[in-house]
Amino acid sequence: MLMSDARSPQSLSIKDPSFDEAASVLRRSLSTRRLIIVVGNCRVDYEGRANSSLDWGERVLIVKKDGSVLVHRSSGYEPVNWQPSKCLFRIEAEKESLHIVAARPQQRETLSLHFNRILSVDSYELSDRGEFNLYVSEEQMKEAILARPDLIEEGFRPIVSEKNLGEAGFTDIMGEDSSSNLVVVEIKRVPAGKESVAQLNRYLNSIRKNLRRGLRGIIAAPELRKGTQGLLATMNLEFREVSPQKCAEILAQRQTRKISEFLRE
Amino acid sequence: MLMSDARSPQSLSIKDPSFDEAASVLRRSLSTRRLIIVVGNCRVDYEGRANSSLDWGERVLIVKKDGSVLVHRSSGYEPVNWQPSKCLFRIEAEKESLHIVAARPQQRETLSLHFNRILSVDSYELSDRGEFNLYVSEEQMKEAILARPDLIEEGFRPIVSEKNLGEAGFTDIMGEDSSSNLVVVEIKRVPAGKESVAQLNRYLNSIRKNLRRGLRGIIAAPELRKGTQGLLATMNLEFREVSPQKCAEILAQRQTRKISEFLRE
DNA sequence: ACGTCGATCTCGAAC
DNA sequence: GTTCGAGGTCGACGT
């Protein structure tokens, strides 16, 4: 190893490298788990769960320090080819090309790239401890409903969440209403369509047998997609408007209460 | 515009640019629809279908020529934040930071980035006309079965593909066996589990009423996930091993035949 | 390891 | 425009 880790710069960039240079940077960056960006003319072949080939063209290759691989074209949100993390690599500089193979050993999946021209190779040591927070997931809507069951209706009492129904899957929330009917709540963060109705119906069907009391199914979502109302009525199911925004407010309140309780102790 | 498109280089790279320089490169690259890579210390806020915040850290920002945006951390296949194509941008160089806003007007979604240090800005004009081909999708397995119905069984005759059953969805293939039973085939490219059984059963149930002849349901997949065999037997359904590889060979043959037929004309 | 489900899913096709 | 299903989905969580 010519360059010690301590002295390696945070970023390293070579324009128009030779294939040998590129291979050298790649190998060193992989072993020191840096993020690598290669831009150049390449073709890509994938073999695994399916097979794909991508003819010659200029693209961006990113290899991350966890061994994930992305091949991006000049357009499109999604990578044209990729490999999830924990890949193993083989790098070979040939006379007229650079050959990179990224393999996932257990899944028997390989991604193979041939570069016949490299515009640039960049390697970065990225320091990133920043916390990522996502607000108002379906999970958080569930928390909000558990904290404030009247979001479903007055007198609703949750009993269990994520009840395993075996075949049918998992209910989001099960509980009782004020008349002791069993209530199954299906939560959606986005407007609910017929697939949500089908899902809820599956849950109810798997519960209905052997049940001695009333059973209600409620979809809690910001809205129903059009055409879903009729289906819901046919199935004798119900809808409650529960918006992610409202849930966020409730969770924020709960957070505030937590803090105030802490201060009083 | 200081630099004409004709004279702009295929790749442009600035290390440790000032915020003004970075903003200038970004604006120019956006207007000329080049692919842009910015590496630096940033925080990211997203508001739209959900909300998210990402604290300071060093990341890779990619803006593509269709207006899609990717923010990648040093690990992980998926971008931590993103925006699909057709974004509109606002770029502002401030005293101590570069502010980038990528908005999707109709979806009311915005992604906001603040950089307080920029390691590099790179802009590329990528030429990429390469064709992408994915082999052995479920669609292609269907084609293979339609081309060679004996993949299902000797004497199987497909009648329709993608038959709409309304409520229940679409069958992959419907046909008849040698005893004139109606046969519904559900194709899976990956090992079939109980959800495939349920799906096939839905199709059969929606057909069974008013049917005067025998009805069979067959799952065509490379294999059954374990535990699925019993369910299949209980439901009186059947399984045929149909591998994507075999389908690929058949499609390749068909392709060959096409070519040979062409040569004979 | 397998199974299930959510996702700012994205993308495309059909209606 | 909306709806619907597929995806090399990925990733997380549970068994």
Concise summary:
The structure is a homodimer of 265-residue chains. With 265 residues, chain A is of the alpha+beta class.
Can you describe this structure?
- With 265 residues, chain A is of the alpha+beta class.
- Chain A has 2 domains: 114 residues, Protein Yojf, Chain: A (Distorted Sandwich), CATH 2.70.180; 119 residues, Trna Endonuclease, Chain: A, domain 1.
- Helices cover 25% and strands 37% of the residues of chain A.
- Chain A is built from 5 helices and 14 strands.
- In chain A, strands 1, 2, 3, 4, 5, 6, 7 and 8 form an 8-stranded antiparallel beta sheet that branches. A 5-stranded mixed beta sheet of chain A has the order 10-11-12-13-14.
- In chain A, a hairpin with an 8-residue loop joins strand 4 and strand 5.
- The longest helix of chain A is centred in the C-terminal third of the chain and has 21 residues.
- The radius of gyration of chain A is 27 Å and the shape is elongated.
- At the A-B interface, strand 1, strand 2, strand 3, strand 8 and strand 9 of A face strand 1, strand 2, strand 3, strand 8 and strand 9 of B.
- Strand 9 of chain A pairs antiparallel with strand 3 of chain B, so a sheet runs across the interface.
- The structure holds a DNA duplex (15 and 15 nucleotides).
